[in-house]
Amino acid sequence: MKRRYFEATVVDCQQCRQRTNDIFRLSLLINQSLEAKPGQFVTLESFCGGKIWRRPFSVYDQLQDKDSRDFSVCFKVVGENTRHYASLKLGDKISVLGPLGNPIHINENVENHILVAGGIGRAGLAYLTEELKRLDRRAIFFMAPKMIGKCSMRIGSIIVASAWRLLPKSKITCSQPTC
Amino acid sequence: MEIVTEVENHMFATDLLNREMALSNYHGVNTEIIACGPNAMLEKVAQIADERGIPCQVIMEILMACGVGSCKGCAIPKKSGGYFHLCQDGPALPADLVDWEKLKRPSVIVTEERRVPVEKINMGVVLVGQSGKQLILPSPIILESGCLDEGAVIDGPVDLTYVGAIKSKGLTLEPRAGNPPPRVCETPSGMLNSIGLENVGLTKFISEQLPLRKSLGVEVIVNFSGATVHEFVEMAVKLAEAGVRVMELNLSCPNTEKGGQMFAVSYGDTEEVVAAVHRAVSEAFLLVKLSPMAPNVVDIAQAAAYSGADALSLFNTYLGMKIDLVTRRPAIGNIYGGMSGPEVRPIALRMVHLVCQKVSISVVASTGITCGEDAAEYLIVGAQAVAVGAGIFSNPNAGPEIFHGLRKIVSDYGMSDIKELVGSLIL
């Protein structure tokens, strides 16, 4: 699909309840659908003088309604720009370039999708897991146990469809949604 | 089937993956692994997948300038040679095709238990010059010439705690009024200046400003410029008579006997002036401040070192230009101005690296230092101390802040002495 350059309006930027308090989800609204597929990313403008690059972030989610004009990115505050993004409020403007990169190919013949996330890498897999849920595919998601119970990311329980096999709770390494 | 009732907190996601692999009969025909995280983790996942013949995709990240396929910066090496471009071929790549070895850039930051507490770290530096002469500084942070008036300290708010030395404003034999305005302008990440060496002249400096500066409680380095070799010598002798022991020769000024060419762009002129001053004031600790405008800075640095310099100050300013679009004139009255600030730091850093590989005398590096990280970069390539100039304008606490930032970096590396940082670049 064609890459476009949008002026986005900030809907909100919410802190994700985490072990640490430096993860945020920025929700943006644009004037047409971003048409991003899982695996793709966008770049956001730099607000800090002297930093000339746009910053790339995986598309965290996008409503599947074909007219939906909103999407979000999830990021960790690591420097001046991410700190600024964390402070954005309803109505603020930010330019967005996307969708960039290749969508992840979901192989029709695969029965078991095993997703593995390290650290903020789980933000890169979030959109894919939503898509796998939507397609009613069997999947299991692994991330470090220290994130259990403390993580709020819209992953939810993704042991879907017919029971994969009986898995005790402790093996499901992501818990409550709502981020 | 094994039921796990407890989850060990020290486990990584790859440990969980390994356990799952061992428990079930996954194979390549019906399973795919998709992973996202730090490269070290992805490499491990790739290995696990490879062992079981399971297809694996890894969602990677890398610094990229454009994101759309133009800059070619986002290159990930392929095992078969050549590169993937993450923005075009990725972000998800086949794990078995990535050359993980070529991506390895291990961190040298040590875990907290292995760090020396910051209070125990030695930050004193000893610049060793010719014939065993020493300049002992309690801190590697020096405040630059021309950026610090005594009033800025005495009336505030510049803080000299944790500062090892301060340089005086660049002196000339006779007083100078300086250049017509505009003398300063701002650039994207820095400034241009053409002040024109405004100063009270040697005599008034010795009688009025020198005592004031000495009263500030830190080592004073007197910076001066001569129009001829003779003038340099005359000034050096007078300063030595006034009790000045640490001097800095500013060679970025024009040699009026050689048609106005800067001393610092000529090997012969540099040799001549440094040797003459060294002969005249052999007891003084002599820093020689070079210009980055020389086409052969390494040669000039060697000329100064061979002729008696005790240390090199690298660098004076690189010339730049800006246009005032309202008047369509240069923003600087003198047309070009010296550049300061973060935007020039990469140029200076490279030159400091080049010089440090070829000279063995001490180097004091400056240009664009705003924080401990910036200072650390210069020490890592070989400088023993750093000078902060324009950085003090926006942050009067730059001295203590840079000191603490630098000390923390020394600690993060598991080092106990600032000396260990000097020249510790890994190639």
Task: Describe it.
The complex is a heterodimer of chains A (179) and B (427). Chain A is mostly beta strands and 179 residues long. Chain A has a domain at 4-100: Beta Barrel (Elongation Factor Tu (Ef-tu), domain 3), CATH 2.40.30. Chain A contains two helices and nine strands; from the N terminus they run E-E-E-E-E-E-H-E-E-H-E. Chain A has a seven-stranded antiparallel β-sheet. Chain A has a two-stranded parallel sheet with strand order 8-9. The longest helix of chain A has 14 residues, at 121-134. Mean pLDDT of chain A is 78; it is low at 147-179. Chain B has 427 residues and is an alpha/beta fold. Chain B folds into two domains: 8-103, no CATH class; 118-420, Alpha-Beta Barrel (TIM Barrel). Chain B contains twelve helices and 23 strands. In chain B, the strands form seven sheets. Chain B has an eight-stranded parallel beta barrel with strand order 8-9-12-13-16-17-22-23, surrounded by five helices. A four-stranded antiparallel β-sheet of chain B has the order 10-11-21-18, with no helix packed on it. Chain B has a three-stranded mixed β-sheet with strand order 1-2-5, covered by helices on one side. The longest helix of chain B is centred in the last third of the chain and has 15 residues, at 398-412. Chain B starts with 12 loop residues before the first helix and ends in a 15-residue tail after the last helix. The interface between A and B is large, with 47 and 49 residues.
